Amino acid sequence: MSGRALTSVSSARVNVGLFYGQLTSGEAAGTRVLVKAYSPSDQPPWAEEPSTDVRAQLEAALSASGVDGNDGSLESKLDSLESKLDSLQAGNLESLEAGLSPSKRSGASLAEALALNEFAAHCRVQRTGDSESRGIARMVGRLIEKDENGTPLVLHIFPWRGEQVRMALPTRLPPTIGSWLAKIERGETDGQKKWTGVPVKAARQRGKFVRAALRDALRGLDALHAAGLVHQGLGPSAVLLSTEDDFNKGSAARGALQELGFARDAASLYPAHWVSTDGLELSPYGEAAEAGNAAADPLELGLAERALRRTLRPGDPFERARYARADDMREFGLLLLAGLVLPNAPPGAIDQLKLRSLTDGPFVGADADGMKTDGVDVPQLREYLDADDGLRIGGVGGVELLNIGAAGSSGWDLLALLLHPEWDQRPSAAEALAHPFFDADMAIY
Question: Rounded to the nearest 5 degrees, what angle is found at the Cα of 391, between the Cα atoms of 389 and 397?
Fold first, then answer.
């Protein structure tokens, strides 16, 4: 195993370490995996000291719990994950749902809640079929252990979808839209290096690249919604990329939806782990929560409150679910806007925070009565961005990419739907996938 602590969600409460390795025994021998390590307090020492033998310390940490009938090695414990996957595919979820018991997971810490919720969401999606073919990253399984200090440690294991290196472990973590945008900001992508002096070709290739990846992520969102869940954590890091090669790949780039830690049941707006895997009843944890015998929901980001204020029948689970899905579609619209505008602007000209301040500030949308909503006034935003020549490289920027296609088929038309001020006018993920923008010729005139 190798890797580093990459992500911090509130530094005082939860750290998420990302690691990569390879299984060396059992039927899955040779399979490379990505491991997410959730820690409810400080990151374990072996994740903070990359100069040490991480593999040896990780194995020691995992064997410290002394599980009966197991030799304590990393490979033997990860081998058991294949049986969990078999259970998912067969629909036999009793053992998996048992892990949602409030007696086993207190849910008191944000780290444990994120890990438990991510696991429950993947269980629910994967019981309905092959998630990877539908655009969602697949979870192989999980381990719950304690390190040598007694700190709870939750490991989630995913198939490796990053850099492929023969006879060696990878040297970096799988790319995401977020990591690609960071490389763009630093001027390090292949497209920036090789398309110097040809801004139109560079912009077209970047446009094809990000559009293809986001279309796959939208397919994943459609599958998630079909399973009765909403994502509630959409952002650049939530879209896994098949590559960061924006010079050669173009439309061949692939994306997958990941980071389901904040996923919620659409009908009840409860966290995924509060609801049974079939979505028809409360899980043991959800029952305990409703009875007041479990910790409050630490993952609430205001969805229930927004639904209460913006729906006509807030107690209607059908309308709540429609609103929750529309809320996801709004976030996808903002992700599409950022994915096309940011990489096609000069470094430092605009960033995600500034773009978000525009959509949530001066260009916030209003309903028919003139009341501000969570939508965006897309025509006014378009006019503002179009007037700013500083957002273009060699005269070409994201505005031009959003202009492609005939009337009614441009990216701006799609954004106007996704970011509509009236939430009930926003398209479903399936309807958005059918929008002509995704098949329009990426031609810039």
Answer: 100
User: Could you tell me which residues are beta bridge partners of residue 176?
Assistant: 240
In angstroms, the CA 343 to CA 114 distance is 30
Q: What is the CA radius of gyration of the chain?
A: 22
In angstroms, the CA 351 to CA 353 distance is 6
| Contact of 105 with 112, CB cutoff 8 Å | yes
- Cα separation, 336 vs 333, in Å, equals 5
Q: Cα(431)–Cα(427) distance, rounded to whole angstroms? A: 6
Q: Is the entire prediction scored with pTM above 0.85? A: no
Residues 129-148 as b/e (b if ≥16 CB within 10 A, e otherwise) read: eebeebbbbbbbbbbbbebe
List the alpha helices (DSSP H) in 370-435.
Answer: 378-386, 398-402, 411-418, 429-433
Dihedral through CA 355, CA 356, CA 362, CA 367, nearest 10?
A: 130
d(CA 84, CA 276): 17
Instruction: Answer whether 286's CB lies under 8 Å from 275's CB.
Output: yes
**DSSP string for 362-373:** TTEEE-TTS-EE
Residue 443 · residue 402 · CB < 8 Å: no
Which domains are delineated in the chain?
A: 2-159 (no CATH), 177-257+302-439 (1.10.510)
For residue 79, what are the CA distances in angstroms to 31, 152, 227?
A: 10, 21, 28
CA angle 385–253–389, rounded 5-degree value? 15
The torsion angles phi and psi of 248, rounded to 5 degrees, stand at -95, -30
Contacts of 443 (CB under 8 A, 6+ apart): 204, 404
Choose among 398, 422, 421, 424: nearest CA to 411. 398
267-326 tens-digit pLDDT: 999 999 999 988 889 988 888 888 887 777 888 889 999 999 999 898 899 999 999 999
Which 3 state secondary structure label does DSSP give 376?
Answer: strand
